[in-house]
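Render Chloramphenicol phosphotransferase in 3D.
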Amino acid sequence: MTNDNHAGQIIILNGAPRSGKSSIARAIQDEFEGPWINLGVDSYNAMTPKRYLPGIGLRPGGERPELEELVPFLYAALYESIAIHAGLGLNVVADLGHHDSYSEPLGILGDCARRLEGFSVLFVGVRCPIETIMRRREFKQEGRETLYVRATEETPVPEPVQRWQDEVHRPGVYDMEVDTSVLTALECAEAIRHQLDLGIPEPSAFERIAGGR
């Protein structure tokens, strides 16, 4: 599928859990003109059978090798859906946590980038210091404790949290980056809007990733 004058804009937000991606996606949906469809990890996993969860949210470290065979197909289906939406003129924002730290490398990001060749894709790295992420993990959500792994005196940063921080920004090829410890979600969205107004760098991050550069 190739792009045309009527194709929608695509924004991919990539970062660790609790880095603020979903809040930025909501701000984009609320503030940007036109329909912005969220096809991120939460919405996709809501459609995934429970026995195959965390699905595309499978965390780094090769902890569930029995699920790894399925993950590339889930990502492929998601990105083909992103392409279909954009091809029909709908804008798409997807908040994801790409990494390649499985029991063996799967090359998923490169495959996903190739599936969006010809489309206008802004790839945004959502960064956040691990200290801020740990504070966010301690918050209560809707009156209930979160299900995240908690810090202890002996382990101030649980290993799964550190693995996300180490792996989610490899190779770190982005069109732009935002830091949610210094910018609000709305400020991040405005920075993204400004970049869209300026235009996506050429070659774009996804073009470089698709070409293996």
